[in-house]
Amino acid sequence: xxxxxxxxxxxxxxxxxxxxxxxxxxxxxxxxxxxxxxxxxxxxxxxxxxxxxxxxxxxxxxxxxxxxxxxxxxxxxxxxxxxxxxxxxxxxxxxxxxxxxxxxxxxxxxxxxxxxxxxxxxxxxxxxxxxxxxxxxxxxxxxxxxxxxxxxxxxxxxxxxxxxxxxxxxxxxxxxxxxxxxxxxxxxxxxxxxxxxxxxxxxxxxxxxxxxxxxxxxxxxxxxxxxxxxxxxxxxxxxxxxxxxxxxxxxxxxxxxxxxxxxxxxxxxxxxxxxxxxxxxxxxxxxxxx
Length: 290
Known about the structure:
The protein is α/β, with parallel strands linked by helices. It folds into two domains: 2-120, ACT domain (Alpha-Beta Plaits, 2-Layer Sandwich); 144-286, Rossmann fold. 40% of the residues lie in helices and 16% in strands. The chain has helices at 2-27, 65-77, 98-112, 144-150, 153-158, 179-190, 211-227, 243-255, 281-286; strands at 55-61, 82-85, 88-94, 115-120, 167-173, 196-200, 232-238, 261-263. The chain has a four-stranded antiparallel beta sheet with strand order 2-3-1-4, with helices on one face. Strands 6-7-5-8 form a four-stranded parallel beta sheet, with helices on both faces.
């Protein structure tokens, strides 16, 4: 307990010193640091999961040097080995250190806006440094321009229509704690402009990380941006994949009139030959959304 209190005090002192330095830099006419993207929820900040045992893994997205200094300083002080490349810090740690790491990273997140995820087991994140070959397991891949041509988006593009003035709302469960990192890598690989993205948690942040939904979320956001690069994207995250909870998230998006278009990549299967269950479509039509 004393060790955890000491750690939090050290972090607070570091933040105070950093604030003083940044204030001085601003007064002297030098930029303090680049503008950070809107923070995405850190999965582990909602509280300690049940039965924390074994070895855990962590990833932190630290696009600026100040964020990186806080996180690497914390890990060094705790004696935890890490790798740092491509703005991504990866590390593993014993379950006994979970509370201390989660609490300290949450404090750093509140102060600097870092994104991080903690998950059970040993996972190795691949940092984005140089654009890799876009070849999947099948050896086939498609670029945004190829998809646009296949769906005749290029006709709209030729008229200067890229989604400007439109807001696309995406509803997914659990979200992706490294979403900004994933989208930035996707944009660099494909040559897309930076995304205008906002993330909303209408029912609170998820209490756990789900790797399958993280891939689903990042794919949904990346390809909505790829097809309409001028549009704003709002991601509404449900705290679980329960159908009722997901439907509540859709209802929130409709009731709050968050956008012009609602995109869902999930839904219950319909009976063979029967109607497809409504996933919020009728409610969206009544509210003037497509």
